[in-house]
Amino acid sequence: MTSIRIVGLEKRFGEVKALSEVNLSIEKGEFFTLLGPSGCGKTTLLRTIAGFYRQDRGEIWLGEERVDEVPAHRRDTGMVFQNYAVFPHMTVFENVAYGLRVRKLPKAEIERRVEASLRTVHLEGFEARTPDQLSGGQQQRVGLARAMAIEPRVLLFDEPLSNLDAKLRVEMREEIRAVQKALGITAIYVTHDQEEALVISDRIAVVSGGRIQQVGSPWEVYKDPANLFVASFVGKVNLLDGELAGPSASGPGLGAFRSGGLELAVQAPPGAEGRPLRAAFRPEDADENPAPGSPNALRGRVAASSFLGSVASYEVEIGGSRIVVERHGPAALGASGPGTELAFALPPERILLFDPASGSRLRPEGAASPEGRGAGR
Amino acid sequence: MSGFSSNRRGAGKGPDLWTFVTLGGFALVLVFLVYPLADVFRYSFTDKETGALSLANWAEFLGKKYYLKAFLHSMVVALATTGLSLVLGIPLAFFTTRYRIRGSALLNTLAVLALLSPPFIGAYSWVTMLGRNGFLRLALASLGLKLPPIYGPLGIILADSLQYYPFVSLMTAGALTTIDRSIEEASENLGASSFRTFFRVTIPLVLPSVTGGALITFMMSLSNFGTPMIIGGNYLVLPTLAYNLFTSEVAERPGMASTVSLILMLCASLIIALQQWASSRRKYASMLVNRPVRKRLRGWSSALAHALCYLIVALSTLPLAVVVFFSFKNTKGPVFVPGFGLESYRQIFFDVPKTVTNSFLFSLAAVVLIASVGTLLGFVVARRRTRAVKVLDPLLMIPYIVPGTVLGIGYIVAFNRRPFFLVGTATIVVMTYFIRRLPYSVRSASSILKQIDPALEEAGINLGSPPGRTFRTVTLPLMKAGIVSGAIMSWVTSMNELSASLLLYVGRTMTMPIKVYLSVLDGFFGTASAMSTILLLVTGLALYLVNRWSGSGAEAAVGAA
C-alpha cells in the first residue's frame, strides 16, 4: 500500500497549459477518481503519474520515493488502458505473465500469480485463448489482471469502461471496486462519467481547464460543490440569475433572491446584497409534499415532461423562468402531462449561491469551506 | 489527450535506444546521400580545369541542341508512356472491379509480374521480336508486311507502357473497390442515370488515385535507364545521356553528366511535389460499409469485356513469355539453332556461376540491412517525432528523387578516394541496393506502426519492460508480417537493380542484370534469356510468398516499385 503525493505539478504542450498547480494527496488504499470533461487534463495527469509524460514543474511522490524523474518502466504502476491494450500476439496467460517475466520471477511464482489474477477477474480457464477470441469486457479483465499481477504500488485506470456497453459498464465498475478493496492497492481512476465516479470512488477530484476544482467524497462533491463548474458538471442543476433584494419575510437570517418575476428565500451570504448572483438547486431538491407554510412554496404550469422509469422529470414555468423538478418512486407514476399545474417547495438551505463572474461559491455566515478539508487530508 | 508530448516523451534522463537510432540515421544520410550528391553538385558547378565556380556546364546544356533534345526525348517518352498506361490501365481496372471477369485473379498476378520484372527484360524481348533480326518482324516481312526495326522512341514507349501500366490499373482498381456502393446508389436514387453517375460521381472519386498512378508511371519512365539503353538506339534520353557522358572513353564529361543528373533530379522533385499537392488537395475519406458488387455481363458485352482485359494483359505478358521460350532454344554462340535444350542454363551455371551467387548474396545482404535499419528508422519516424527526427524524415526520402544512374555517378566520384575507398567492392553494390530501397522501407515500417496502437507499447513499459525490450517483445512481433512482405519486395527490386550497379560493378561484383545487359549488347540472346528467366522466376516466387504471407501482393507491388 502506497500513498501518493503530487506537489505543484505543471505540464504544457507547446503553448497549451494542460496542467497547472496540481496538488493532491491520496491515502494508502484509497480509490481516488479524477473526474472532468474531455480535454480537462485528467488523462494528462494520469499519464504524467505513469511517466508517459514528463512534467514541466512539480513533484510526484509514491510513498517515500520521489518518482517524477524515474523512467516509466521503473515506476511500478499498473495501468489499465481505455482501449484495453491487450497484446494481440500473446495468449491471455502470456499477457498476464508479461510484467512478471520482465521482473524475472521464478516460473512457479509466475504461474501462481497469473492463476490468482485470472481467478480474481473471473477468467479461469481462459489462459490459452488469444485476445481475438475475447469480448471487449473479457479483454478489459485481462488488462486488469495483467496490471494487478505485478502487484504495483498503485493502479491507474484510464477510462477503462468507456468502450463497453452500458450494462457491462455497471457490472465491471462494481468488480473493479471490489478487486481494488480486496487487494488494498491505491487506485487512481480517470473518467468523464459522473455517475461512475460517484459510485466507485472514496474521493473525487473534479478537474477542469487543467486545474483541480474540488476534492471531496462523492457526497461532498455532489451536495456541497465548491464552485459553479462542479455544481453543473456533477449531476443536474437549475440555474437562476438574479440578485439579493433584502431580507426575506419567510424567516430569520434568510434573504430574498429575485430572479425575474420569481422571489426565493435563500440563506444569504454576508455582503452579497445588491450584487449579481447565480442560484443553483438540483431537480430532486424540490419538495413534493411541502408542509403548509413552508418557505418557497411554488406553483407553475408544466411545459414539458419526460418519464424515465423510476423518475419523472418536469419542466415547470414559474415567474418567467423554467425550472426542472423531479419526482421519484410512486409519485413519478402519477405523471402530470404538459399544461397541468404542479406545486412544490424549495427548502432555502438547498439553494446554493455563486458569484456568476468567478463561479466561486458564496456561503452563508458560519459555514466552512470543504475545500480545505479535501485537499489537506 | 493521448497524443505525444511535443518536447520530450516520457520521463527519465539521458539518451535511450532511439536517440542512437536517430543519430545513426543522420550518419547514414550524410555519408551515403549528402556526401556523394554534394559531389554531383560540385562537378556540375565547377570548371574541370581550373576548379573555379562556373556555370559553363549549364550554359552548354541550355545552348546545345544535342542536350536539349535528350531533355525533350525524356519528356516525350515519359508523357507518351503515361498516356498509354492510362489507356491500358483504366479499362482493365474498371472491368475487373465492376464486372465479373473470369480469371481476373490470374490477370492481376500476371500484370504485377510484368510490373516487377527486371526493367530491361521487356525492351530486350521486344528487340528479339521486332528488332533488326527480330523473328516477328522477319515473319511479317515474309508475309509482305514490312515494319521498321523497333529501336527508338516507339520501342521505349511500348516497353515502358507495357511494364508500368499496372501502376495505373492497380491504384485505380484499389479506389474503385473502396467506393461505398451506397454513394453511387444515392446518385441514382436522386434521379441520375447510371451513365451520369459514372461521370459525375465515380470518376471524380477515383481521380486522385488515377492521378497518383499516372505520376508514378511518369516518374518511373523518366528515370528508367535499362529500357532506353537497350531499345532506344540513337534516341538518347536523360539517364542514358548521363551514363554516356560519364563513361564515354573518348570524351569523359563528369561535369556535364552531373548537370544532366541534377536536371533529372529536378524533374523528379517537381513530380513528387505535384504528387503531394494532388493527394493533399483531394482526399476522400471513405467509410466502406457496403462493398461495390461485381455485375454479371451477358452475351456480346461479356465477350468484349473479356477480350479487352485478356488482350491488355496478354500484351504485357508476351515479352516475358518470349524470354522464357528463347531461354530453352538451342544456341551456337550468339546464333539460335533449331531444337530445344538447357544449353543456355548450362552456360550460366558453368561459365558465370559467380554472377548468380553474387546477385543472391548482394540482394540478401541488402535485404537484411533494409529490413532492420528501415524498421528502426520507421519506428523513430512514426513514434518519436522529436525536432531532430522531423529534420531526418524528409532526408530519408531523398532516394525517391535520385535515379539509379545519378546515385551510381555520385558513388563513383565520392567513394573512390579517402576516407571511403569503396568502388570495386561488394559493399558499395550492397549499399546501393540498400539506399535505393531505404525510403520505401522506412515509409512502409512507419505506416505499419501507425496501425499499431501506441497504448500497447505503453502497456509494455508500464509493466516494467524498458523501451528496447518493449520494442522487441511487443512492437516487433506485431510488425513482423508487414516487415517480411516489405523485405521480400525489396529483395526482388534489389535482384533486378541495373542502373546504379552498372556504373559501380567490376568483374568480380558482376550481377545477373548486368550480365543480361552485356549479353544483349554482345548478341548472346540465349544466356540473356536464361538469366532473365531465372530473375523472372525469382520475381514470381517472391510474389507468391508475399501473397501467401499477407494476401495482398498487388498492394505490396505498388509500394515496392
Please describe what this structure looks like.
The complex is a heterodimer of chains A (377) and B (561). Chain A is α+β, with helices and mostly antiparallel strands and 377 residues long. Chain A folds into 2 domains: 4-230, P-loop containing nucleotide triphosphate hydrolases (Rossmann fold, 3-Layer(aba) Sandwich), CATH 3.40.50.300; 236-366, RNA polymerase II/Efflux pump adaptor protein, barrel-sandwich hybrid domain (OB fold (Dihydrolipoamide Acetyltransferase, E2P)), CATH 2.40.50. Chain A has helices at residues 42-50, 92-102, 107-120, 136-149, 166-183, 194-200, 218-223, 228-233, 330-333, 370-376, and strands spanning 4-13, 16-26, 31-35, 57-62, 65-66, 77-80, 154-158, 186-191, 203-208, 211-216, 238-247, 254-259, 262-267, 276-281, 297-307, 311-318, 321-328, 341-345, 352-354, 361-362. In chain A, the strands form 4 sheets. A 6-stranded mixed β-sheet of chain A has the order 6-7-8-3-9-10, sandwiched between helices. In chain A, a hairpin with a 2-residue loop joins β1 and β2. The longest helix of chain A has 18 residues, at 166-183. Chain A is elongated, with a radius of gyration of 25 Å. The model of chain A is unreliable at 371-377 (pLDDT under 50). Chain B has 2 domains: 15-36 and 337-561, Orthogonal Bundle (MetI-like fold); 55-283 and 296-327, MetI-like fold (Orthogonal Bundle), CATH 1.10.3720. Chain B has helices at 17-44, 56-63, 65-98, 104-116, 121-130, 135-142, 153-177, 181-189, 194-223, 226-231, 238-247, 254-281, 299-327, 343-351, 353-383, 387-396, 404-414, 426-450, 454-462, 467-495, 499-504, 512-522, 525-550, 553-560; strands spanning 329-332, 335-340, 416-417, 420-421. In chain B, β3 and β4 form a beta hairpin. Chains A and B meet through α1, β6, α2 and α4 of A and α19 and α20 of B.
